[in-house]
Amino acid sequence: MASHHTSSFDAGSHRYSLTAIVLHWVLGLALLGIFAVGVYMTDLPFSPTRLKFYNWHKWAGITILALSALRLAWRLTHRPPALPGKIAVAMPAWQHWAHHGTHYALYALFFVVPLMGWAYSSAAGFPIVVFGVLPLPDFVPVDKALADLIKPLHEWSAMALIALAGLHIAAALKHQWIDRDGLIGRMMPGRD
To answer: Which DSSP helix (H) or strand (E) runs through 130?
Structure first.
């Protein structure tokens, strides 16, 4: 009788590299954190505390943008492992489409969301000074009408990113707890 909790493939040959694993988890946790801060800070009354949170949010956004560029560069130069054959065959066509589509959309939004935030900050006339020491150039000229246009785009794209991240997490948990195929082990550290 087959055990339900063991992997149906050799995890070692289908694992992501340590660099990819670290970038995945650091970026994932950073995105959840910055989203929580973003939601929290928008309801704060105008105060030094609110300004501090906005600065932290901007710094985190620029850091996430840099991490996203690093992650994309790694992905383009290091082919990710293929889905294990047994899992790939067991997945219906729509799940393959959702798997690839979600990953492409997540990568796009890793850049769209922080770039929209940078554009909004620039258009609103609030330059970004990373960690209070590194001034960034304005992404777009100061323009209140443009800022009013960009602000909801930043918010909507952030909501889309979190929704897709939630879908990604739900799919990983489905593989772990329902399919019990060990797929999540490919992205877990220290399980060779």
So the answer is: strand 129-130
